[in-house]
Amino acid sequence: MKSVFGKMFGAFVLTAVATPALAHTGGAAGGLSSGLFHPILGTDHLLAMAAVGVWSAAQPAKQAWRGPVLFVGVLAVGALLGVSGLPLPMVEPGILASVVILGLMIATARVLPAGAGLAAISVFALFHGHAHGTEAVGALAGYMAGFMIASAALHAAGFGLGRLAGELKHGLAGIGLAISGAGLLLAGG
Which residues contact 164 (CB under 8 A, 6 or more apart)? Predict the structure, then answer.
């Protein structure tokens, strides 16, 4: 089991280091394929989505679905706000902070009240969604469907990683600290 976890964690870290620093470069995006790939190719979104899944895996089984469902729902609301042109202050700093804080939430998942975690997840989803919405052009419905599907898939991947990590003594803490560290690297440029 440790060998599988080590390989998955190594791939996760290499992916975080190898992709562009931010998905939200101010460019325009539209259509289903753009929506599907945009979250996966942006390290900030990739890490945040996986982190929500890992954090959710540390929650009691009956409540594990709440984080990802809440994130995807608020992600859509944020995207609609971005598409409508409604400004939201501090979007990029909020996105970077989401990676750092979600990582810390994983490291403290067993002691952080679930309500506090869900509140943080909803705020971060609003930032991520707004950034996607402001970049949307053209085939808006396909683009939104794409980034919501990709986000849910990244939540699921993070959930699987979280379940594996939960079997190791300090697995969740290690993943959480690695995600926070990657977020600090992103913030530092």
Answer: 1, 4, 5, 8, 171
Whether the Cβ atoms of residue 174 and residue 66 lie closer than 8 Å to each other: no
Distance, in Å, from the CA atom of 36 to the CA atom of 116, rounded to the nearest integer, reads 29
Report pTM: 0.84
Question: Cβ neighbours of residue 74 under 8 Å, at least 6 residues apart?
Answer: 121, 122, 125, 126, 129
Which residues are bridge partners to 136 per DSSP? 29
Report residues of the chain scoring pLDDT below 50.
Answer: 1-23, 25
Around 175, how many Cα atoms within 13 Å sit in the side-chain half-sphere? Answer: 36
Please list, residue by residue across 145-182, b when 16 or more beta carbons sit within 10 angstroms of its beta carbon and e when fewer do. bbbbebbbebbebbbebbbbbeebeebbbbbbebbbeb
CA 44 to chain centre: 7
